[in-house]
Amino acid sequence: MGQGLSCTRSSREHEFFSAVQAGDVELVELCLCRDPEMLHRSTIYDRLSALHIAAANGRLEVLSVILERSVNPDLLNRHKQTPLMLASMHGKIACVQRLLQAGANILMFDSLHGRTCLHFAAYYGHFDCLQAILAAAHSTPVADSWGFARFVNVRDGNGATPLHLAARHRRPECVHILLGNGALVCASTGAYGYPGSTPLHLAARGGCLDCVRELLAWGADRLQRDSSGRIPYMVALKRNHGACAALLNPASAEPLVWPSPLKFISELDPEAKLLLEAALMEANREREKNILKGTSYSLPSPLHSDDGMDDNVSEPETSDSELCCICFDQVCTIEVQDCGHQMCAHCTLALCCHNKPNPATLCTSTPVCPFCRSNIARLVVAKMKTDDEGEKDAPSKTRRLRRSCNLSEGSSSFKGLSALGSFGIISGRGSGRRASTSEITDKP
Ligand SMILES: [Zn+2]
Ligand SMILES: [Zn+2]
């Protein structure tokens, strides 16, 4: 990237820039006492200021010393790159945060490819920097002038969004964060890569299974074509990414898709979101196993190497009374509000994912609580009762609900719960143990 100091004007400048690069705060301050003008000098070739060098090398203390002397945080180098861009490129999160705090502009474009700091963080896979920039985007003037959604989908000179770059360069964490922040999953590039590529085309080209998985779980279209008429499946085949191709094959089973259009899903608190996301990925991994079973591809992701551990995690650790009354397999972790009924994350997710938008009308039917059929206003993490005292103190309706579920074991009437017909997919067990609707809804 040329952050070196090969060409400087004088030995004093060389000493100063070297001190900045090495993070020698004392020497930097000494140099600035001798000649405060040093702050406005730059290296000859790359036109790097001291602020650029400190940011690119993660020299937080030096960076702070310079910023405290009220230097403009958005100085430009030869390629019109700001210190914030260089810090994002090199993954120097502390410097990114300090620059943002100093009011660095997140909406500057460099002259090489017309990229922003968000592009650089996504391209190089620095998800912590990416997250810091997105957090700043909520509170800076950018949010007002551009709007947050537009910023997340900002295009570079070739029409690539940060999501395109993250997918192409195998950065699944960045793909995940960007999608969670409203990145458009089916946006086509202009000239970047093959024209008209979607993030799924680029992930197929990069051969990153985790990126493909994330994009599919966010509803990426396996049938969307690029400008030369290819679907992502063909791109993966051509590049010999067999496992990716298997998932991208339009003939293989469709994955569960994160139900982002649902209002209560977009308003989830972080804890509930984590639980549901984990359930989604787990359910999709089960599908993947079946898809890849017939092929010669093993799953390279470390997530798949410890199946035994996975089983332990999903095994209920608490007593039977905590079990989900739908699948009788997992522990209740999600509570429906306002009614207070509880179920496991897998069943919650299945409930939401089985209400896919009708492709003809793009209309999503909102799921209702499977126990009382009331509208779901919110989903929250169910409060776990870990000790006896907790049980005595909180004889809540949910506790009673669990008891009534136990009482109802063996009953075969499960009326009015048509939405639950598909839950058998999720649970391998418990098909003979169903709860009666009337008993479940019998709350005080
Ligand atoms: Zn369940
Ligand atoms: Zn309910």
Number of strands: 3
Bound compounds: zinc ion
Q: How many H/I helical runs?
A: 23
The percent range for strand residues is under 5%
Low confidence ranges: 301-318, 387-444
Quote the average pLDDT: 81
Alpha-beta classification: mainly alpha
Distance between the termini: 68 Å
> What Rg do the Cα atoms give?
27 Å
Would you list the SSEs in sequence order as H and E? HHHHHHHHHHHHHHHHHHHEEHEHHH
Main β-sheet, spatial strand arrangement: 2-1-3
Shape: globular
DSSP helix fraction: 40-55%
| Main sheet properties | 3 strands, antiparallel
Pfam family, one: Ank
GO molecular function: ubiquitin protein ligase activity; zinc ion binding
Catalytic activity: S-ubiquitinyl-[E2 ubiquitin-conjugating enzyme]-L-cysteine + [acceptor protein]-L-lysine = [E2 ubiquitin-conjugating enzyme]-L-cysteine + N(6)-ubiquitinyl-[acceptor protein]-L-lysine
Region (Disordered): 295-315
Word description of this protein:
Pathway: Protein modification; protein ubiquitination. ANK repeats lie at residues 46-78, 79-111, 113-145, 158-190, 195-227. Pfam families: Ank, Ank_2, RING_XB3-XBAT31. GO terms for molecular function: ubiquitin protein ligase activity; zinc ion binding. By secondary structure, the chain is an all-alpha fold. Helices cover 44% and strands 2% of the residues. It has helices spanning 11-22, 25-34, 50-56, 60-68, 83-89, 93-101, 117-123, 127-139, 141-145, 148-152, 162-168, 172-180, 199-206, 209-217, 232-238, 242-248, 263-266, 270-293, 307-314, 345-353, 388-393, 397-407, 437-440, and strands at 334-337, 342-343, 378-381. The chain has a three-stranded antiparallel beta sheet with strand order 2-1-3. Strand 1 and strand 2 (342-343) form a beta hairpin. The longest helix has 24 residues, at 270-293. The N and C termini lie far apart (68 Å). The structure holds zinc ion (2 copies). The site of one zinc ion (ZN) has 7 residues, from loops.
